[in-house]
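From the pipeline queue, job 12 of 40. The input is one protein chain; the requested action is below.

Action: predict structure.
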Amino acid sequence: MPFHNRRRRFRRGRSPTTLPRFVLVGNPNVGKSVIFNLLTRRYASVSNYPGTTVELTSGSTTLNHQPALIIDTPGVNSLIPMSEEEIVTRNILIFQNPRAIILVIDSKNLRRGLLIALQLAEMGLPFVIDLNMEDEAKSLGMEIDTDKLSELLGVKVVNTVGTQKKGIKELVDLIPQASTATYPVSYCPEIEEGIAKLVPLIKSSRIKKRAIALMLLAGDRSPIPWLSPTVERKTVSQIDHIMHLTEAKLHQPLGSLINQQLLKIADEIIQKVQKERGTEKRNWQEVVAQLSLHPLWGTLILLFVLFLVYQFVGRFGAGTTATFMEEVVFGKYINPWVTEGLKFLLPVKFLQELMLGEYGLVTIALTYSFAIILPIVTYFFLAFALLEDSGYLPRLSAMLNSPFKIIGLTGKAVLPLMLGFGCCTMATLSARILDSKKERMLVTLLLALSIPCSAQMAVILALLAGFSLKATLWWGGTILAVLIGTSYASSRLLPGAPPDFIMELPPIRLPQLSNILMKTGSRIVWYLKEAVPLFILGTFVLFVLDKLDFLSYIENLASPVITQFLDLPSQTTRAFIGGFLRRDYGVAGLYLLAKQGQLSGTQIVVSVTTLTLFVPCIANLFVMIKERGWKIAFLMLAFIIPVSLLIGGLLNFVLRTLAVQF
């Protein structure tokens, strides 16, 4: 399954797709990304695994004086997959035919890492072990005998401190010496009997048949399509029968039982290789780590962090910097110069309108992409990398998990929802960090329906500022009620089990500037490749619709609803259509109508509330199509339009019935 890397020069003219592959594997939050960046330097690219929204990072390096490709996989807790990320990682190990695996383990949590090591041993795949974060383990009084661990497992083991670049050279030297583990793994008699019955039914496999048999026993159905070309339907039924029979004998789910027995073996290994001494006096990082989870102090720290992130991304990034880029850099310099140049180079009026018109590719698409969105995402990626590298990001999610659970989300959802107040388009892309498909769909819907971006919110607050605080509270309260109600109802209607919240809490540490800049740089490249083409395509679609006079048709079609149901002037219809291009354009249209005295206080509150809930901007819509598929995206759109109009109409009815004045 190919990875889409940039073309680069390699020794002997070998392309990335023909290079020997080495795969990074490990639990979440073990420092895999840092190790990857140190191994590959700047030669990295990001792509989706085919058929999924799971991101993979790959990059070139040199091992044993030969060019090689390093593939960084998502963090996993087991290679008997229970999530999309674990399925992707398992499939890469099987289908990418890696030369070796680099298993990164958090030295403070050897048990979790050894679970994966034992599964790699059962697969018969060659690997080396990188015990990362050695310094943090020592600060907790943990010492691991790497020589003894290497002797027991039969694979090479090295200590590293990724953030300090310690041990990286030794790791590079050991990777070509990867070998298959020799440690014997066995289970209870019932499971061993089930394995023995399944192995003869497995006709072909790129890993040991025993490992495939364990996946089938654990209830993993993904290997069945691999067997279907050579296995009759009767045999597939026989596999299910063996699994159910074995589970009935043990009276508990086999997946959890297999993991329990593997962890028991891991504990036996740990007793032989790990020693614990008295811990040193607590340092400031441990104090902050403990306070960050305290019911009172943790909440205060959380609110302070959210405030700083919003100020940095929403105010400084989306406000000051984006305004400077749009009005000064592009408005006074780039756009005028490009406009004059294109008018000279493109004398045809149609082409000039395509590039420079009301829906021009230069005046709208490129200005929007680089002057407005790029500053916002750059600031967000900086903030995200800072929280990630400091170890606070998992704590932020943990603190918000309980209140978010009430509305069907986990604490992780706070990150894309928070980004939505900067830019909903990028927030939709960032929903990839969520673990379940159901949660990603729910967050995508909430972002499109009820989260105003910073540009839109700035104009809304400016518009409402001319009235009392009561107007702002009616608007904000309605939006919050819709968000909570939609999330609560949708979480119960959407198929799928409630998302689990399992997260390892790493220690608090001082962020490394090099790590922050490296992560931010790679994510900006990802934005330029993934999002900018969508902005250009979206603007082109609007240009075509405008030329076909379809936008005027929509305006005439919607006017009766706007004027009669919402009790707004017909001129506001154009503002709603403008909001589809850019959310703040629509509110800006309402702002002009209000300045001209064409909107009353009640009409302003109703129109602003309806427009906030109305269709997402076209860039966000295209990202929704890309991430969720066109069917899901248009089903969401079909839900958002009537709901926003219904809420607007109900708000208008309530305000007028109660004779609320602003």
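Job complete. The beta strands are 21-26, 44-48, 55-63, 66-72, 100-106, 127-132, 142-144, 157-159, 274-276.
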